[in-house]
């Protein structure tokens, strides 16, 4: 009887893990496609990113329902309970990552026809590439229960924040240089902020992997602070520079 | 024995509900204070909002842990299970609302010393007042299991989105009028976006109340779409208007 229960639990867990793996694949692809759509000004691809989000939402609801049923039916303890709780948390973060990638794609549609010097997009692109790498690494860390790899992701979050702070200043400078840049750059500010928040969710996932493997909550202060919420650029009113 | 279990469940539920009530009170106050801090340029109050967020985070972790233990120990069914799942979801939304209010307060600190015509703040303030009303209403709807009131909140979300779209255009216009407004208005764009997202979380809570009372997921398309992600303001390069 006990063996039967254990086996039922393992099957439940396998289903949860495979749903999370599917969610991870979709969210990675959404982010990668959202960046390509921006760089190539590809509206069809942007629309595809927007459409992909439904599947992610459905999977998240499925993981949540199935996890709760598993807790009620199997009453797992210790690492088994952490496994199920981690699945709920990670599916929540991946669903949010999908929302944010979808919002990036919407911004791409908003600016598709406008005036847009390619150099302005470069900063967003490098930041997004770094975040995509973080997302891949943290999903591998989860799949392999690799604590060290998760901690690497967690530590690197400040690089993303530094890139975002410099992007914020750069975009404000472009706005001041030429009012034709303002609308375009305002959308890119939000695009960049979305990417930075995707980075925050990869850090959340790294924290969940830490909790899953060790049973402890990471107590150290997260190495992140969005510097731009305190950033200010002083301008000379006459020149706008 | 059965009565004992039921009574244990009711006690668990009571603890969950009182934690949610506390979280609701804190998040309402954080949003109200964040708006006052912006309008009065009150840096001390802004800092107080930032500090209040820790308590909200702690309560959210506590609700999540306690809810999971309740599901494992009591194996609730039907409406009882929905009650516990709703507590998890609502505490998640309230925790996010706290994060967003905290971010608003950080933006207030960022722009505290700069050049800022008071009329520019007015649009943000009206929007925040409406969102605060929505938040109060949805917390009452949850406390009283009032489906109609929850649906009212749910339907009004498009008003917030309309206000945000007009705020977005207004702020871009101020930026184009005078480059000295650019940095200040960029922060206000994010401030407004945070408030709009607080509105989204009140809508989430309304959907959770619907699920709690009826057992059904709201399938109608949410009456919301952030129009600004597709907004564009055409400017004449010479005048910047």
UniProtKB/TrEMBL annotation, chains A, B:
Keywords: Cytoplasm, Phosphate transport, Transport. NCBIfam families: phoU_full (TIGR02135). Plays a role in the regulation of phosphate uptake. Its main location: cytoplasm. Residues 221-241 are annotated as: Disordered. Coiled coil: none annotated. GO terms for biological process: intracellular phosphate ion homeostasis; negative regulation of phosphate metabolic process; phosphate ion transport. This is Phosphate-specific transport system accessory protein PhoU. Signal peptide: none annotated. It is found in: Cytoplasm. Residues 20-107, 125-209 form the PhoU domain. The keyword Repeat does not apply.
């Amino acid at each position: 009887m006990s063996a039967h229960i254990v086996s039922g639990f393992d099957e439940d867990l396998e289903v949860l893990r495979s749903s999370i793996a599917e969610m991870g694949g979709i969210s990675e692809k959404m982010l990668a496609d959202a960046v390509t759509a921006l760089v190539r000004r590809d509206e069809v691809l942007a629309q595809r990113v927007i459409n992909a989000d439904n599947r992610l939402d459905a999977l998240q609801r499925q993981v949540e329902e199935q996890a709760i049923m598993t807790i009620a039916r199997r009453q797992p303890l210790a690492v088994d309970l952490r496994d199920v709780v981690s699945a709920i948390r990670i599916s929540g973060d991946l669903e949010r990552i999908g929302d944010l990638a979808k919002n990036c794609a919407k911004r791409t549609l908003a600016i598709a026809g406008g005036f847009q010097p390619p150099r302005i997009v470069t900063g967003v692109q490098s930041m997004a590439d770094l975040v995509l790498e973080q997302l891949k690494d943290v999903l591998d860390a989860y799949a392999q229960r690799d604590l060290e790899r998760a901690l690497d992701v967690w530590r690197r979050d400040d690089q993303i924040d530094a890139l975002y702070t410099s992007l914020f200043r750069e975009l404000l400078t472009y706005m001041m240089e030429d009012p034709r840049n303002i609308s375009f750059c305002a959308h890119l500010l939000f695009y960049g902020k979305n990417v930075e928040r995707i980075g925050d969710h990869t850090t959340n996932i790294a924290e969940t992997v830490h909790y899953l493997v060790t049973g402890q909550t990471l107590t150290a202060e997260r190495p992140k602070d969005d510097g731009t919420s305190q950033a200010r650029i002083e301008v000379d009113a006459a020149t706008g520079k």
